[in-house]
């Protein structure tokens, strides 16, 4: 008691000597005449589940002067959520593999860093914050990677109607499409957010009447996002209603649907359903497929389904969907199944998060899919989630961390916080080899949870690849 009183007195005298300046926060959402009046009617108050405290300054981790040809950027959360979230830059070259290069902080903490994506010209990387809204913070964080070895924080922003940033795709004009899985209070519908080349949000799709009725009619919680620029198509997949992963929760509400969109019009063509799918986490067009086919992952079923957007169903409607491959007992209800494919469209990889397993399929013949991994083998991974085939097509980079909401939510998947750099063999099979361990290196800043990765490959200086 006495000590506390003393401390308070000391604090008061300090405050007296150095008066605390007025705290002035700009309105989180600027007033827009006509629109703001409308928003009061449709947007319920935003919950603040965590105090929006600023991050604590962290001891600087010295940067290195390495300039590898292959660079890995990992979008990483401060594990104890007191320090700023950050982008960690690493070498992926063989001779300096896993060596740390640089750390770039964002101005806030507790965002639950989620997916990461590069712009078409490789000068910008954007990372989304899954749970930024719980601290009423910005949701998308932009990094300038003009100097690929010294990324700098450029800016951040938030949408007006939607939040919970997920998948990211670069637009040819320099901007981005980003799925925002929920509304600004984490309910359905979310939106497909679009930015211009300066990364200002220019739209939250859909906007036309028919598509708006579609997303109000059935859960729209877009997580997966894939775009076929030549075929003028977008596919989004609905995963979970985000607010239902937070307490108090009567159980997670999973979605069973995908939306097929007209890219040019940004309008929804139709809803496709995987009956009892239980969270369609991811969707990806198969590179080079002549019918613009795409694969989607159904988390409850542990299955991969295939969409043929130009085939017509028995009612004459555009778009069909059918089972492609059942990943088996171990794959059911594994919370998350994310995917990536090789650029030749031959091999597909899937992380089964709570099964601690990465599955590999040879899909060169879609009528005769072959499994390349043994589902019964114990693999050296805990909680694998985000994955990317490296630009050279020789490796699979997997981050071993999905989501840990802690006490405020009901999703806490075990993880070992490693980045796996798995060799892809000629037949597409996986050979677990090198890893980057995030557990000890970031001890001085409360630990680290790497969620996702972007890779730059400068092996051919004429044709750098940003992926
Ligand atoms: C995996 O184990 C299950 C149960 O022991 C068995 O039925 C199945 O055949 C095994 N699969 C493979 C590919 O070995
Ligand atoms: C692991 O990768 C290194 C570098 O490519 C390679 O030299 C080594 O043979 C690989 N190890 C195994 C066990 O495959």
TrEMBL record:
Endpoints of the signal sequence: 1-17
Keyword Signal in annotation: yes
Keyword Signal: yes
Record-linked Gene3D superfamilies: YVTN repeat-like/Quinoprotein amine dehydrogenase (2.130.10.10)
Keyword set, alphabetical order: Signal
InterPro entries: Haem_d1_sf, WD40/YVTN_repeat-like_dom_sf
Official protein name in the record: Uncharacterized protein
């Amino acid at each position: 008691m006495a000590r506390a009183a003393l401390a308070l007195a000391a604090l008061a005298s300090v405050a007296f000597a150095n008066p605390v300046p007025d705290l002035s926060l700009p309105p989180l959402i600027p007033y827009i005449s006509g629109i703001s009046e409308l928003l009061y009617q449709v947007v319920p108050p935003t919950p603040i589940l965590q105090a929006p405290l600023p991050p604590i300054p962290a001891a600087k981790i010295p940067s290195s002067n390495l300039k590898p040809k292959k660079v890995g950027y990992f979008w990483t959360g401060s594990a104890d959520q007191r320090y700023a979230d950050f982008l960690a830059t690493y070498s992926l070259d063989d001779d300096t593999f896993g060596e740390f290069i640089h750390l770039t902080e964002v101005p806030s903490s507790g965002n639950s860093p989620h997916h990461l994506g590069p712009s078409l010209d490789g000068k910008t990387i954007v990372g989304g914050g899954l749970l930024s809204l719980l601290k009423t913070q910005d949701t998308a964080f932009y990094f300038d990677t003009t100097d690929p070895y010294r990324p700098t924080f450029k800016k951040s922003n938030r949408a007006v109607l939607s939040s919970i940033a997920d998948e990211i795709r670069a637009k040819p004009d320099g901007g981005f499409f980003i799925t925002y899985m929920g509304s600004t209070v984490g309910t359905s519908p979310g939106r497909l957010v679009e930015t211009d080349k300066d990364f200002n949000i220019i739209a939250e799709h859909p906007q036309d009447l028919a598509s708006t009725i579609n997303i109000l009619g059935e859960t729209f919680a877009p997580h997966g996002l894939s775009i076929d620029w030549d075929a003028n198509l977008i596919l989004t997949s609905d995963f979970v209603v985000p607010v239902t992963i937070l307490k108090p929760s009567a159980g997670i509400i999973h979605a069973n649907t995908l939306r097929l969109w007209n890219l040019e019009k940004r309008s929804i063509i139709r809803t496709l359903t995987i009956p009892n799918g239980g969270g369609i986490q991811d969707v990806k067009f198969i590179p080079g497929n002549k019918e613009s086919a795409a694969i989607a992952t159904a988390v409850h079923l542990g299955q991969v389904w295939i969409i043929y957007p130009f085939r017509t169903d028995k009612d004459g409607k555009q778009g069909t969907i059918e089972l492609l491959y059942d990943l088996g007992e171990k794959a059911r209800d594994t919370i998350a199944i994310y995917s990536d494919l090789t650029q030749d469209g031959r091999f597909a990889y899937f992380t089964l998060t709570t099964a601690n397993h990465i599955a590999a399929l040879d899909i060169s013949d879609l009528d005769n899919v072959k499994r390349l991994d043994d589902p019964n083998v114990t693999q050296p991974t805990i909680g694998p989630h985000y994955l990317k085939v490296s630009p050279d097509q020789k490796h699979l980079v997997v981050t071993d961390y999905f989501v840990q909401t802690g006490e405020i939510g009901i999703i806490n998947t075990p993880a070992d916080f490693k980045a796996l750099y798995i060799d892809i063999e000629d037949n597409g099979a996986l050979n677990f080899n090198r890893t980057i361990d995030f557990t000890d290196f970031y001890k001085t800043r409360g630990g680290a949870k790497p969620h996702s990765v972007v890779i730059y490959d400068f092996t051919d200086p004429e044709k750098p690849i940003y992926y």
